TrEMBL record:
<keyword id="KW-0479">Metal-binding</keyword>
<dbReference type="InterPro" id="IPR013785">
    <property type="entry name" value="Aldolase_TIM"/>
</dbReference>
<dbReference type="InterPro" id="IPR000771">
    <property type="entry name" value="FBA_II"/>
</dbReference>
<dbReference type="GO" id="GO:0006094">
    <property type="term" value="P:gluconeogenesis"/>
</dbReference>
<dbReference type="GO" id="GO:0008270">
    <property type="term" value="F:zinc ion binding"/>
</dbReference>
<keyword id="KW-0862">Zinc</keyword>
<dbReference type="GO" id="GO:0006096">
    <property type="term" value="P:glycolytic process"/>
</dbReference>
<comment type="function">
    <text>Catalyzes the aldol condensation of dihydroxyacetone phosphate (DHAP or glycerone-phosphate) with glyceraldehyde 3-phosphate (G3P) to form fructose 1,6-bisphosphate (FBP) in gluconeogenesis and the reverse reaction in glycolysis.</text>
</comment>
<dbReference type="GO" id="GO:0005829">
    <property type="term" value="C:cytosol"/>
</dbReference>
<comment type="pathway">
    <text>Carbohydrate degradation; glycolysis; D-glyceraldehyde 3-phosphate and glycerone phosphate from D-glucose: step 4/4.</text>
</comment>
<dbReference type="Pfam" id="PF01116">
    <property type="entry name" value="F_bP_aldolase"/>
</dbReference>
<comment type="similarity">
    <text>Belongs to the class II fructose-bisphosphate aldolase family.</text>
</comment>
<keyword id="KW-0324">Glycolysis</keyword>
<dbReference type="GO" id="GO:0004332">
    <property type="term" value="F:fructose-bisphosphate aldolase activity"/>
</dbReference>
<dbReference type="InterPro" id="IPR006411">
    <property type="entry name" value="Fruct_bisP_bact"/>
</dbReference>
<keyword id="KW-0456">Lyase</keyword>
<protein>
    <recommendedName>
        <fullName>Fructose-bisphosphate aldolase</fullName>
        <ecNumber>4.1.2.13</ecNumber>
    </recommendedName>
</protein>
Length: 96
């Protein structure tokens, strides 16, 4: 696994939960609506976090505030990737 701090103190059952398998099980049982809000928020945050960590030294030296469109775009990229994955998991990719 890793250190507890890597998981922000989340319980083990949450850390080990396979969301894709959960979606497949739910769809197999006839679920037609799944709320992805938290999953997509996490995907968005992941892109922003990775950008900030990769530019940490640069950011610390700056007096001016970084343009938000740069780091927001990184969040949008990771969220878009997650949406594509979920559409594939739900067997709905390329349906429109």
């Amino acid at each position: 696994m890793g250190r507890t701090s890597d998981y922000f103190g989340l319980p083990r059952w949450i850390r080990e939960y396979d969301i894709k398998a959960g979606f497949e099980t739910a769809i197999g049982h006839g679920v037609v609506k799944v709320i992805l809000d938290t999953d997509l928020q996490y995907a968005h945050l992941t892109g922003i976090r990775d950008f900030v960590l990769s530019k940490k030294d640069y950011i610390m030296q700056q007096v001016e505030i970084l343009r938000s469109r740069v780091w927001v775009r990184e969040g949008e990229k990771t969220m878009s990737t997650r949406v594509k994955e979920v559409l594939h998991d739900f067997n709905t990719a390329n349906q429109l």
